[in-house]
Write a structure and sequence with these properties.
alpha+beta; phosphorelay sensor kinase activity; two-stranded antiparallel ribbon; 2 domains; HATPase_C_sf; Sensor-like histidine kinase SenX3; 56% helix; coiled coil; Helix Hairpins; 287 residues; kinase; extended; Heat Shock Protein 90
Length: 287
């Protein structure tokens, strides 16, 4: 019986050691996770159990994701800062020329050019503000039954001058009486941003199709048009903030329009997807 007591004591000591080692490793993991903002170094721990090791591996995966997101955010902010500085520098240049102008006409031209560039900068800042609001999970949306076709038609009408300027005539096919729960303003912003994206980057008039889904209040809205340079785009990143595909191409905009649309869609329980097929860019909203 003595050997049994010794064995139990040894097992108890081993168990206590196992618990202490596990707790020490967990505390070390907690300290490392608490400082992951300052260091993206992976956790290198030796755990006494497979489950704890899996936990460390998952923590390392999350650290890698956070580090990549931080790098991407820094890259995007640098790009956005460049886009803001460019019109600001242009405005400053024209204001300096204003001081050197000798005729009223030259002064008027300088003021007009400076105002145009400041307006462009204001558009970029406003877009960033709109994205922050759209991505705010605490934002309260007013969801009511909405005539989706009426919202789409109103957005097309609002942008009619821009379509005329490009000599485009959109093809519009809307099922009647498509009513769905949505925030009217948010839904209109989604449609408007998709259409503006067509105007900025498309090569031909868009085709707009609204179809009633099998469910009572479901629908599918597709906005498609031909576009050039689609091979430079990554379809999986089209809804990322500031994403523009080929950075060498500058066709206006902040790179936030589709990100805003996606955030507003998700806030209403809808899905927004994009596809690139045979030089055709299609944005699809499903409610």
């Amino acid at each position: 019986m003595i050997w049994l007591g010794v064995l139990c004591a040894a097992l108890a000591v081993a168990l206590v050691g196992w618990v202490v080692a596990t707790e020490r490793q967990m505390r070390e993991m907690a300290r490392n996770l608490a400082t992951r903002g300052q260091s993206a170094r992976p956790l290198a721990l030796r755990f006494p159990t497979a489950a704890a090791w899996e936990l460390a591996q998952e923590a390392n995966h999350l650290i890698d994701e956070a580090a990549e997101e931080k790098r991407q955010l820094q890259k995007n902010l640098a790009s956005f800062s460049h886009d803001v500085r460019t019109p600001l520098a242009g405005a400053q240049g024209y204001l300096q020329l204003y001081g050197m102008a000798v005729t009223d006409r030259e002064r008027d031209e300088c003021v007009a050019a400076a105002a145009e560039r400041l307006t462009a900068m204001r558009g970029l800042v406003d877009a960033l503000f709109e994205y922050a609001k759209a991505d705010d999970g605490a934002r309260a949306l007013v969801v009511v039954p909405v005539d989706v076709g009426a919202v789409v038609a109103a957005c097309v009408a609002d942008l009619h001058p821009a379509f005329v300027e490009r000599q485009w005539e959109p093809t519009v096919r809307l099922d009647e009486d498509v009513v769905a729960p949505a925030d009217p303003e948010a839904l209109a912003r989604i449609v408007e941003n998709a259409l503006v994206n067509c105007l900025r980057h498309g090569a031909a008039a868009p085709a707009i199709t609204l179809r009633r889904a099998a469910t009572a209040d479901g629908f599918t809205l597709a906005i498609a048009n031909e576009a050039e340079g689609l091979e430079a785009l990554d379809a999986s990143r089209l809804f990322e903030r500031f994403y523009r595909g080929d950075p060498s191409r500058r066709s206006g905009g902040s790179g936030l329009g589709l990100a805003i649309a996606d955030a507003l869609a998700r806030a209403q329980g809808m899905t927004l997807t994009a596809s690139l097929t045979d030089n055709r860019f299609t944005i699809t909203l499903r409610g």
